[in-house]
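Feature request, filed as a ticket because there's no other form

It would be nice if the structure record came with a short human-readable summary line next to the tokens. Right now we just get the raw output. Example of a typical job, pasted below so the devs can see what we mean:
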Amino acid sequence: MFLVICYAVHEKKLAGVYQFHSQDEAFACMEMDVKNTYDEEIANSGNSMDDIDFDIDETKGIVTDHAADCCWTWEVVEI
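Raw output as currently delivered:
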């Protein structure tokens, strides 16, 4: 079993925990959530795209809005 854990660093709280049976499903969820959060932050923050970035690797993702001092992290964890 795999969990995708999203943490809102700027709020110091969990933003979501999602459970999957396969690593591929978990990674697909994480990738979609990272990209959606990035797109939403660009659309709603009023900050320049130059101030907002994201990165995804095999087990982790991050979205950072530098101007708003906001950051979300994701991690795929096997349990």
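Something like this underneath would help us a lot:
The longest helix spans residues 23-45.
The two ends are 6 Å apart (CA to CA).
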